[in-house]
């Protein structure tokens, strides 16, 4: 076993400190008043105004923060579940099933990954107008129920993680194609599904441009709620930092839930390599 040198530990600790300090400072300022925002050196200890700032945050009439938080939880949760399900299902089909046009369809999916999202905002917005989904939460959910990246990622993982002999054995036992996916393939894809789920939740949770285009300020996502706080006539930094701190909590919870799957996927990949 290779033993790390003291310099390695020092470098890792320094990198960890530099990564964590901005988040810690944000939380520390969120528990104080606005007069400490520009202090040099910055405040390193939390204050006593945390509960008051959180109460002002949820009571702010311009932010609709509680509604934005709920909308983001619903949208991110639904998009994550559907993306993992449909991407793993399609990835299994592209990796292990034989059907006409498979390679052509896969090339089309890969081609969609090369098109910037910004190029599709105008036609997508026109579709939402035709459907009457303006200022409706489904306008944030439905266009992103599955992604080309997710399909390609799950296809690549299924190609290596699921032996053909295992699928043939399941067919001999009388299992249907969907039964093979549900009982054999999906458990094998769990590490990749955990990684895809985390990335999808984070991306949907942090999405700003599309919700800004299709939702009104009175029906926001959490990112729009924070933006409404930033656009106020008076810049209440402690209120914005309190909102950002609350908005980070669901991401931390999801990371804790999927973290074991991510580490397992990395270790499994390292062993295969």
Write a structural description.
- This protein is mainly α and about 270 residues long.
- It is built from 13 helices and no strands.
- The longest helix has about 35 residues, at about 235-270.
Short description:
The protein contains 13 helices and no strands. The chain is an all-alpha fold and 273 residues long. The longest helix has 36 residues, at 237-272.
Reconstruct the topology from this structure:
Blueprint: H1 6-30, H2 50-59, H3 65-96, H4 102-112, H5 121-131, H6 138-141, H7 148-161, H8 164-172, H9 177-188, H10 190-206, H11 209-214, H12 222-230, H13 237-272
Q: Based on helices, strands and strand pairing, what is the structural class?
A: mainly alpha
| Poorly predicted regions | 269-273
Specify the number of helices. 13
Using only C-alpha atoms, the radius of gyration works out to 23 Å
Instruction: Output mean pLDDT.
Output: 87
Beta-strand share of residues: under 5%
Shape: globular
Helical content (DSSP H or I, runs of 4+): over 70%
What is the number of E strands? 0
| Element order: H for helix, E for strand | HHHHHHHHHHHHH
Biggest beta sheet attributes:
none
Distance between the termini: 18 Å
